[in-house]
Hints:
Helix content: 25-40%
Shape: globular
Strand order of the largest sheet: 2-3-9
Strand content: 15-25%
Structural class: alpha+beta
Oligomer: single chain
Radius of gyration: 19 Å
Number of helices: 7
Order of helices and strands: HHEEEEEEEEHEEHHEEHH
Distance between the termini: 17 Å
Amino acid sequence: MANPDRLWSRLILHFWALEAERDESVTPIASLTAEPDPVAYLQTAYEQTVEATSAPNEWKGTTTACGALLHHTRGTAASEPLLYVTNLGDSQVMVLRPEDNAIIYKTTEQWHWFDCPRQLGTNSPDIPKANAVMDKVEAKEGDIVLAMSDGVMDNLWEHEILQSVQDSLQRWASGKIDGATANKSEDPNGEMLYVARELMKAARVIAEDPYAESPFMERAVEEGLAMEGGDFL
């Protein structure tokens, strides 16, 4: 049986990326002062997804939306990278600076109430142009941008995410990964794939432990709910 939420999330991401690529106002040959507008891109993506899932298809579903668009200020002697981070719901973008062992930015979760995030889709009142939040984040070479669902955020605290990434970076740099030598020349993206997989494995361990302490459990207790363990949905 198909997962309707999965279709909605994939369509939103597909149309969102297309709108960003189509914006000619922020191409290298366009105005030096032009800026991308990821909230507007997301609004268009939302409208296209509604159309694509309406009659005769009638495909119901919902999704949160979170992303980071890398942009550079042009026309200056020293152009610096700038992240345009957009969020609607309880997924999260987190920017790490490994050289400082620090989290320099993270989005704020949006909830209607506990365990009911803002979301786009069937029967939801939320729309990007009214509810999405966009921040500009100054970045530098070497920073790591994580885009995570609540499957990570509900199971790992921020310091655990940072530690997992740092440990994975160190193991990769040493050339020894799970008893095997990493061949960095064969896969230039291998380091980040390894970091992502190790982070997911760490989150899964907590999610499958019915007695683990987790951020999700902590929030539930704060709401007066008797709950323990991770969040495995």
